[in-house]
Write a structure and sequence with these properties.
210 residues; mainly alpha; two-stranded antiparallel sheet; 2 strands; globular; HD_phosphohydro
Length: 210
């Protein structure tokens, strides 16, 4: 298997997500969809990305297909997955806003319909805090697209110990500019107070002391 074939095999779920959930729901005569595919793969393949890269995106695409039947707008969730970390600049305060703007540019160029565009923007906005009312209510389960979308970011927390350590190490490298004590403090602050039911991919609220 050649290098290019190997890379394609490694992102087969991502390609399926792009073709079936996004490209199939936009202007089929526009070449913009092909330009954006090239742009996003180049963006996520940047050498500086150790965690939020093509492997990460492909894993999220795989989990997407575990929950697709639960979603009201699979296309909007797929778009939000793609653009959530299109740019990732942990030392910048506006990278999330930039990604919303990238998505709006994409939606205009490929003529994504207004409802899916609006829903995707709502999902991207929600990712700025990753908290909903259900996440803060003991015994509550969220069943809307927003809950499943946010849960996709937390799947690795339910991985077995070796995989969890591997993913945690990759995440740590994204914050190499921080000292260990600074990084640990930021993780305690930012990690939701939940355990994850990976079978159903929904948050389970469990209060814990910080």
């Amino acid at each position: 298997m050649s290098g290019e074939e190997g890379e394609a095999a490694e992102r087969q779920d991502l390609e399926r997500l792009w073709k079936q959930e996004i490209a199939a729901n936009v202007d089929s005569e526009s070449t913009a969809i092909f330009d954006w595919w090239a742009r996003l793969t180049a963006q996520y393949a940047e050498n500086a990305r150790t965690y939020f890269n093509l492997e990460f995106l492909d894993n999220k695409a795989k989990w997407f297909y575990e929950i697709k039947d639960e979603l009201k707008s699979p296309t909007a969730v797929a778009c939000a997955i793609i653009f959530q970390y299109f740019e990732y600049e942990p030392q910048s305060e506006d990278w999330r806003e930039k990604n919303s703007e990238h998505f709006k540019e994409f939606a205009t160029e490929v003529q994504l319909d207004d409802d899916k565009t609006r829903t995707t923007i709502e999902l991207l906005d929600a990712s700025k805090t990753s908290i909903t009312e259900e996440h803060q209510s003991e015994g509550a389960y969220g069943s809307e697209d927003i809950h499943f979308f946010l849960d996709l970011d937390m799947v690795y927390l339910g991985a077995d110990a070796p995989e969890y350590r591997a993913q945690s190490d990759k995440m740590r490298q994204e914050y190499s500019f921080l000292r260990s004590d600074q990084y640990n403090t930021s993780q305690i602050k930012d990690t939701p107070k939940f355990s994850i039911d990976t079978q159903h991919l929904r948050y389970i609220y469990i209060p814990r002391e910080i």
